[in-house]
Amino acid sequence: MDTTIKDKIFSTLSYLSFGILGFVLLLLKQGESRFLRYHIYQSILLGLLFMFIPYGLNILFGFIQMALKLIPGAGIYGATAFYWINQVLFFIGFGILAYSIFGVWKNQYTWIKWISAQIYKML
Asked: Are the C-beta atoms of 1 and 107 separated by less than 8 Å?
Protein backbone atom coordinates (compact mmCIF):
# COMPACT_ATOMS: atom_id res chain seq x y z
CA MET A 1 0.00 0.00 0.00
CA ASP A 2 1.34 3.35 -0.98
CA THR A 3 -0.35 5.77 1.39
CA THR A 4 0.99 9.21 2.05
CA ILE A 5 0.91 11.17 5.27
CA LYS A 6 -1.55 13.53 3.55
CA ASP A 7 -3.95 10.61 2.97
CA LYS A 8 -3.69 9.60 6.61
CA ILE A 9 -4.28 13.14 7.89
CA PHE A 10 -7.26 13.73 5.58
CA SER A 11 -8.73 10.34 6.50
CA THR A 12 -8.37 11.04 10.21
CA LEU A 13 -9.88 14.51 9.92
CA SER A 14 -12.71 13.08 7.87
CA TYR A 15 -13.53 10.61 10.66
CA LEU A 16 -13.28 13.31 13.32
CA SER A 17 -15.67 15.56 11.37
CA PHE A 18 -18.08 12.62 10.86
CA GLY A 19 -17.56 12.72 7.11
CA ILE A 20 -18.09 16.44 6.52
CA LEU A 21 -14.46 17.10 5.55
CA GLY A 22 -14.48 13.94 3.44
CA PHE A 23 -17.51 15.14 1.55
CA VAL A 24 -15.79 18.48 0.88
CA LEU A 25 -12.66 16.66 -0.32
CA LEU A 26 -14.76 14.57 -2.71
CA LEU A 27 -16.36 17.73 -4.09
CA LEU A 28 -12.91 19.26 -4.58
CA LYS A 29 -11.66 16.05 -6.26
CA GLN A 30 -8.96 15.54 -3.60
CA GLY A 31 -9.76 11.86 -2.98
CA GLU A 32 -7.26 10.54 -5.51
CA SER A 33 -5.98 7.41 -3.78
CA ARG A 34 -8.13 4.35 -3.19
CA PHE A 35 -7.09 4.37 0.49
CA LEU A 36 -8.31 7.93 1.02
CA ARG A 37 -11.56 7.38 -0.91
CA TYR A 38 -12.30 4.23 1.11
CA HIS A 39 -11.90 6.04 4.43
CA ILE A 40 -13.80 9.10 3.21
CA TYR A 41 -16.77 6.97 2.17
CA GLN A 42 -16.65 5.04 5.42
CA SER A 43 -16.51 8.23 7.50
CA ILE A 44 -19.49 9.66 5.62
CA LEU A 45 -21.56 6.53 6.22
CA LEU A 46 -20.54 6.41 9.88
CA GLY A 47 -21.38 10.09 10.25
CA LEU A 48 -24.84 9.51 8.83
CA LEU A 49 -25.39 6.57 11.17
CA PHE A 50 -24.18 8.55 14.18
CA MET A 51 -26.58 11.32 13.21
CA PHE A 52 -29.73 9.28 12.55
CA ILE A 53 -29.53 6.38 15.02
CA PRO A 54 -29.84 8.54 18.16
CA TYR A 55 -32.89 10.34 16.75
CA GLY A 56 -34.56 7.07 15.85
CA LEU A 57 -33.82 5.60 19.26
CA ASN A 58 -35.17 8.69 21.02
CA ILE A 59 -38.43 8.36 19.11
CA LEU A 60 -38.64 4.65 19.90
CA PHE A 61 -37.75 5.19 23.57
CA GLY A 62 -40.32 7.99 23.78
CA PHE A 63 -43.08 5.66 22.64
CA ILE A 64 -41.96 2.94 25.03
CA GLN A 65 -41.70 5.43 27.89
CA MET A 66 -45.25 6.65 27.23
CA ALA A 67 -46.45 3.05 27.45
CA LEU A 68 -44.48 2.49 30.66
CA LYS A 69 -46.08 5.55 32.26
CA LEU A 70 -49.37 3.70 32.13
CA ILE A 71 -47.90 1.21 34.61
CA PRO A 72 -47.59 2.78 38.09
CA GLY A 73 -43.93 3.14 39.11
CA ALA A 74 -42.47 1.75 35.89
CA GLY A 75 -41.76 5.11 34.23
CA ILE A 76 -38.65 5.87 36.30
CA TYR A 77 -37.13 2.47 35.58
CA GLY A 78 -37.67 2.93 31.86
CA ALA A 79 -35.95 6.32 31.91
CA THR A 80 -32.97 4.87 33.77
CA ALA A 81 -32.70 1.92 31.41
CA PHE A 82 -32.87 4.17 28.34
CA TYR A 83 -30.18 6.43 29.78
CA TRP A 84 -27.80 3.50 30.19
CA ILE A 85 -28.63 2.12 26.75
CA ASN A 86 -27.75 5.50 25.24
CA GLN A 87 -24.47 5.58 27.19
CA VAL A 88 -23.48 2.10 26.00
CA LEU A 89 -24.30 3.00 22.39
CA PHE A 90 -22.24 6.20 22.70
CA PHE A 91 -19.19 4.22 23.84
CA ILE A 92 -19.70 1.65 21.08
CA GLY A 93 -19.77 4.50 18.55
CA PHE A 94 -16.65 6.04 20.08
CA GLY A 95 -14.93 2.65 19.89
CA ILE A 96 -15.81 2.28 16.20
CA LEU A 97 -14.46 5.75 15.53
CA ALA A 98 -11.22 5.04 17.43
CA TYR A 99 -10.83 1.67 15.65
CA SER A 100 -11.20 3.38 12.28
CA ILE A 101 -8.67 6.10 13.07
CA PHE A 102 -6.12 3.61 14.42
CA GLY A 103 -6.61 1.56 11.25
CA VAL A 104 -5.82 4.60 9.13
CA TRP A 105 -2.47 5.06 10.88
CA LYS A 106 -1.67 1.35 10.53
CA ASN A 107 -2.32 1.54 6.75
CA GLN A 108 -5.36 -0.72 7.03
CA TYR A 109 -8.72 -0.74 5.35
CA THR A 110 -10.70 -1.04 8.58
CA TRP A 111 -13.57 -3.51 8.36
CA ILE A 112 -16.94 -2.63 9.83
CA LYS A 113 -19.25 -5.43 8.78
CA TRP A 114 -22.15 -3.87 6.84
CA ILE A 115 -20.59 -0.47 6.11
CA SER A 116 -17.33 -1.74 4.63
CA ALA A 117 -19.18 -4.20 2.39
CA GLN A 118 -21.15 -1.30 0.90
CA ILE A 119 -17.99 0.74 0.37
CA TYR A 120 -16.24 -2.09 -1.48
CA LYS A 121 -19.20 -2.12 -3.88
CA MET A 122 -18.79 1.64 -4.44
CA LEU A 123 -15.04 1.51 -5.14
From this structure: yes
